[in-house]
Structure to design on (480 residues):
């Protein structure tokens, strides 16, 4: 299943009808709490689109409070193959959102799937070159095995396998049997 | 009888140091008259720090403002008198009312105590910042970064001061030091300061070396926070990054020390210690006009 969470609406509902900017830690904390409440209501695993389209400014503190803590919670709390796994896609990001988010992600050694306003979906944050290459292959050709990724990318099969497993554990890719799928939503 | 403290003609960061030097030997409960009648200039830092100094006095001090109508009017437009009215006994010429328009003030002096105050400041600055920064030949993309920097600077008060503070933003010509226009953010509070804020987590580690200067180095240069959460401390690091990108200057003063991130156009010292004590923390961010070929 795919859940769509409009962050602008969450901000207005959880904090103030007047706000369009995601600034300050208390605001980030309230927004993350609202997102977690939505996710806790859903027992099914799947892709969750966090949509930034209606968000103005995102400062570092808020990015840390919302994105880093959200990723950490759903990354570390349970193994990726159990039920309730959440694969996040961050949509509608502009250059300045990305700048704040990347800063925070690198600080924590995290990464996420970004669907920016302009440009193709890609990974941002702390990801090595092999993983980035493997992710791009899966994104381009769809569900495929590590062997196919190796053939398409020029990575060694063991290197491709390692990269894919790492991406799956970080919930940047989904896995069904021996096939890997991009954790991303179709618009 | 009140001790008269002469406010220098330039009420800027250097002027505030002169005031603090004069106050160093005056007991906090002693009556004081701040004589600013001959002041010719006031920066956002000077004006917000002046309010902060007023807040630290045990007995409500008297403030005698600039005799120059032009200067007094500017200080009024910057919001100084509005807030000074509750902090000082105002003597001498006090401009009444505010000049409508306030077009030359990017953000008048605004109290910061809660998260919603930061939202308000960011929303207000976004309307004006793009135009102002473009006039300084700074990339329009810098506008959001500027607002972000302002947000993080204000949050420093909420997170660490333990009390409210002040923020102000202004654009002006910095003739003496730079010969260019600058946009300046000033954020001041009279709270617990960096040393006390970090003492529990960092003081023991540094032992005898622990003082206001060491606390500033930990917070500003190493991104250390009093919170153990790994994500903390990124705000000041983000401010440093923004300031560096736009060839700006960052100065943070707390207690008896002042730390500066210095661009090539300035000859300040990186760390000053044993300054006259000033409670809380005071931050100044200066972003200069970019030279076009």
């Amino acid at each position: 299943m795919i859940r769509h969470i409009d962050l602008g609406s969450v901000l207005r509902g959880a904090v103030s009808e007047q706000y369009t900017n995601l600034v300050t830690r208390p605001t980030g904390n309230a927004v993350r709490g609202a997102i977690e409440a939505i996710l806790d209501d859903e027992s099914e695993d799947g892709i969750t689109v966090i949509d930034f389209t209606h968000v103005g400014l995102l400062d570092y503190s808020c990015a840390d409070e919302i994105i880093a803590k959200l990723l950490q919670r759903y990354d570390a709390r349970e193994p990726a193959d159990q039920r309730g796994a959440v694969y996040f896609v961050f949509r509608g990001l502009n250059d300045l959102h990305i700048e704040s988010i990347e800063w925070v992600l690198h600080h924590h050694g995290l990464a996420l799937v970004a669907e920016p306003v302009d440009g193709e979906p890609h990974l941002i944050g702390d990801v090595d070159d092999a993983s980035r290459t493997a992710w791009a292959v899966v994104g381009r050709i769809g569900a495929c095995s590590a062997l196919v990724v190796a053939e398409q990318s020029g990575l060694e099969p063991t290197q491709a396998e390692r990269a894919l497993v790492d991406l799956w554990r970080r919930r940047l890719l989904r896995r069904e049997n021996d096939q890997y799928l991009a954790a991303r939503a179709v618009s | 009888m009140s001790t008269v403290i002469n406010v220098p003609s330039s009420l800027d960061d250097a002027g505030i140091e002169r005031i603090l030097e004069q106050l160093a030997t005056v007991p906090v409960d002693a009556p004081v008259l701040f004589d600013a009648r001959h002041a010719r200039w006031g920066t956002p830092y000077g004006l917000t720090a002046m309010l902060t100094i007023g807040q630290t006095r045990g007995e409500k001090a008297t403030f005698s403002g600039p005799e120059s109508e032009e200067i007094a009017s500017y200080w009024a437009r910057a919001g100084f008198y509005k807030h000074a009215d509750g902090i000082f006994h105002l003597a001498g010429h006090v401009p009444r009312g505010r000049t409508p328009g306030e077009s030359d003030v990017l953000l008048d002096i605004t109290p910061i105590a809660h998260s919603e105050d930061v939202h308000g400041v960011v929303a207000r600055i976004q309307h004006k910042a793009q135009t102002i920064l473009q006039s300084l030949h700074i990339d329009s993309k810098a506008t959001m970064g500027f607002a972000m920097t302002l947000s993080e600077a204000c949050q420093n008060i909420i997170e660490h001061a333990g009390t409210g503070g002040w923020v102000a933003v202004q654009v002006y010509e910095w003739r003496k030091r730079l010969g260019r226009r600058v946009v300046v953010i000033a954020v001041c509070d009279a709270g617990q300061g960096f040393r006390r804020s970090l003492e529990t987590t960092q003081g023991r580690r540094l032992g005898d070396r622990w003082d206001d200067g060491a606390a500033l180095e930990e917070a500003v240069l190493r991104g250390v926070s009093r919170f153990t959460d790994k994500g903390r401390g990124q705000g000041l690091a983000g401010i440093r990054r923004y300031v560096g990108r736009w060839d700006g200057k960052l100065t943070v003063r707390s207690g008896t020390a002042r730390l500066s991130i210095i661009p090539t156009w300035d000859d300040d010292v990186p760390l000053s210690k044993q300054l006259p004590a000033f409670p809380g923390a005071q931050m100044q961010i200066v972003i200069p006009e970019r030279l076009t070929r």
In short: DSSP finds seven helices and seven strands in chain A. The longest strand of chain A covers residues 86-93. The CA atoms of residues 77 and 181 of chain A lie 22 Å apart. The beta strands of chain A are 2-6, 46-51, 86-93, 111-116, 122-125, 173-176, 179-182.
